[in-house]
Specification:
Layout (H helix, E strand, L loop, with lengths): L2 E5 L2 E4 L4 E8 L7 E7 L6 E6 L10 E3 L7 E6 L4 E6 L8 E8 L13 E2 L3 E6 L1
Parallel strand pairs: 2-11
Antiparallel strand pairs: 1-3, 3-8, 4-5, 4-9, 5-6, 7-8, 9-10, 9-11
Length: 128
């Protein structure tokens, strides 16, 4: 059974940091690009960050939405079947349910519908 299980969310204040983690099982993790998405209250799900199969050691290994660039860092550990998202300098606009997802094809992550597998999400609330 394919599973993606997010953890690390919580209630924080503006300027704080959080590290999210996603544990994967039931598929060949190293064959998939991984991404983080978020869904703010009342809004559609949007792309946050993505990472290539080999991680950030390769060319064009990581990619970010403009809202995340410079503040968030995505990483993966293929030996542990995990993907992380380090979030620094959090803002109220970052409040959302955060999801990790996997994609086998080379299609863009800009469209969440291209993703093959999804976790159930972890909630991040940033108070002002």
């Amino acid at each position: 059974q394919v599973q993606l299980v997010e953890s690390g969310g919580g209630l924080v204040q503006t300027g704080d940091s959080l590290r999210l983690s996603c544990a994967a099982s039931g598929f060949t993790f190293s064959n998939y690009r991984m991404g983080w998405f978020r869904q703010p209250p009342g809004q559609e799900r949007e792309f946050v960050a993505g990472i290539s199969r080999g991680g950030n050691r390769g060319a064009s290994g990581t990619y970010y939405a403009d809202s995340a660039k410079g503040r968030f860092t995505i990483s993966r550990d293929n030996a542990a079947n995990t993907v992380g998202l380090q979030m620094n300098d959090l803002k109220p606009e970052d409040t959302a349910v955060y999801y990790c997802a996997a994609i086998l094809s080379a299609n863009t992550m800009s469209n969440p519908h291209n993703m093959d597998y999804w976790g159930k999400g972890t909630r991040v609330t940033v108070s002002s």
